[in-house]
Amino acid sequence: MGFNGIAGVVNAPGQIPWPIIAGYFIIALLIAGYVAKRKGGLSSFTTLDWVYMGVGGAFAVVWDFYLGSFIGRAIPSTPFFDISFVGRFLITMITVGVVRKFGAGMITTFIFNLLADLFHYGFGGEPVYFVYEALTYGLFFDMMIAATGGNLFAIEKPVGSKTTTYAVMLVEGAIIGYVYGAIPYSIFWLGFFAPFVYGGVVNWARIYFLLWAYGVSNIPVGAIGAWITYRIAKAVGV
Q: Cα–Cα distance between 238 and 236 in angstroms, integer?
């Protein structure tokens, strides 16, 4: 029996077993939160942080569904490049890079998803999309915040020499570019959430292709985005 447009399928051919998905989310959250607490990336949000996250989430919606869609009419969307997704990715990266506190990724993504439901999708399929968006796209950013102790893209303090600092910034950007750009949709959505919501067979050949294809564009976009985020964060003095 479905609920709010969710078929609830957990045994589709090729689908990742639900205990693996649930276990991953729980363990990843606990470990990331623990690491953030130990390394200094876990802090309370200020009013300004909430403003940044709210504006970032709202602007990501405006770009993804309006500006990006309009521009995309002149730039064909392919597995290698999607202007709407790239813009949303960069906006989220800049927002998280300015805040740099554990939870910023999940909250910004949650706000994006909420506003997207209000103004574009409607609330059919919820709360699945909140879980999917926040605990994949958002959590991957928060994992990086936890791993760096809040010094995401070396914004908080230099890492060795200036050259080393820029190298670390670019490498971190490339990593989050691949993780954010390739894994959530390919593994989590196509491998579990799409059949869970809509039913159907999982095509692992397509998943393997997209894991490679999305990395082609999103690795360099992530590196460039890290540099942009670094400059913006330094300019606003946060």
A: 6
